[in-house]
Q: What sequence folds into this?
């Protein structure tokens, strides 16, 4: 946590940058300048490093941070917040720049997400229940960090060694995170060749497999239902489905994807581009694991979360996602 704060401190200044500039036909000089959003409420569960990461990102981007942690890490959150507030105090800054709401109940969440007079943005991080509750009930603007229903599609033109290695990494390296693969899609043209290899590797890692009937005709596994394809397991459980080429993969992802991270394994450039252009997700990969969807891996230093929104911020939400902009207009007495 301390190293992450130091990395955030070393980031370039996100506020006060001139993003664009031009002169109009009326000889007005206009600058588009980055500014802080204001007061940001962050609602999260379990992980106490969120306390330090998000507080540091908000402070670096000149935002006020109101933290609402879960009861699972209540004591750790209090200890971390106290350290950060002590540093603010030592530097003659108001300790209210980083606040931790002491109430860890659902009632506390209900109050915070309706304080649109005082709070400019809510960022919820946690399980599907928390995200849905905040999204359905907030009167403050929300950037949601929803479930990671991530897919990897192995195309008939994939290098099979790469495909197996990437699939294993995407599922088993850390199954309980939002960028882990939940469903593996396999091109029908190579299913009989690659599925036995995958089965051997997943068995070695203790992965429970749930699959379509076509897959079950090739390897042993439990049957996968539509409910399975729509479930974020966050566990060492994997769905497998045989599809009819890249179009079959796209159709499945359009139906079941959550807009988080999707990957294609192929050496065919035109097929890769078709997948990249057709898939509507925050992060779309060619020949790489979805596990790279992460602020640190993207070079952001840390992240507030991984946004599945389409507006404002999308994907790993680093420090620039905590800024907005305004227009500064310089005139010389012009009237309209």
A:
């Amino acid at each position: 946590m301390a190293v992450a704060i130091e990395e955030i401190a070393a980031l370039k200044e996100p506020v006060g940058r001139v993003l664009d500039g031009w002169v109009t036909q009326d000889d007005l000089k206009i600058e588009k300048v980055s500014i802080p959003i204001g007061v940001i409420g962050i609602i999260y569960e379990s992980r106490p490093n969120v306390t330090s990461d998000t507080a540091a990102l908000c402070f670096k981007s000149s935002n006020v941070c109101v933290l609402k942690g879960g009861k699972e890490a209540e004591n750790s959150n209090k200890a971390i917040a106290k350290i950060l507030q002590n540093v603010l105090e030592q530097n003659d800054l108001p300790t209210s720049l980083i606040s931790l709401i002491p109430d860890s109940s659902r009632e506390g969440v209900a109050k915070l997400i309706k304080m649109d007079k005082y709070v400019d943005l809510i960022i919820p991080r946690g399980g599907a229940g928390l995200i849905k509750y905040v999204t359905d009930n907030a009167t403050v603007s929300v950037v949601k960090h929803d479930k990671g229903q991530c897919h990897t599609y192995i195309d008939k033109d994939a290098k099979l060694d790469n495909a197996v290695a990437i699939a294993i990494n995407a599922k088993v390296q850390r199954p309980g995170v939002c960028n882990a693969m939940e469903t593996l899609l396999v091109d029908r043209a190579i299913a009989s060749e690659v599925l036995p290899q995958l089965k051997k590797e997943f068995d070695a890692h203790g992965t429970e497999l749930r699959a379509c009937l076509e897959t079950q005709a090739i390897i042993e596994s439990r049957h996968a239902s539509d409910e399975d394809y729509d479930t974020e397991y966050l566990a060492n459980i994997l769905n497998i489905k045989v599809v009819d080429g890249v179009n079959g993969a796209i159709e499945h992802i359009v139906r079941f994807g959550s807009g988080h991270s999707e990957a294609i394994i192929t050496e065919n450039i035109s097929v890769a581009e078709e997948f990249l252009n057709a898939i509507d997700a925050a992060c779309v990969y060619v020949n790489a694991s979805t596990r790279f969807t992460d602020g640190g891996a993207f070079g952001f230093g840390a992240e507030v979360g991984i946004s599945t929104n389409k507006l404002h911020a999308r994907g790993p939400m680093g420090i620039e996602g905590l800024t907005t902009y305004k227009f500064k207009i310089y005139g010389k007495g012009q009237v309209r």
User: Anything to note?
Assistant: The chain has a mean pLDDT of 94. The chain has two domains: 2-146+308-330, 150-292.
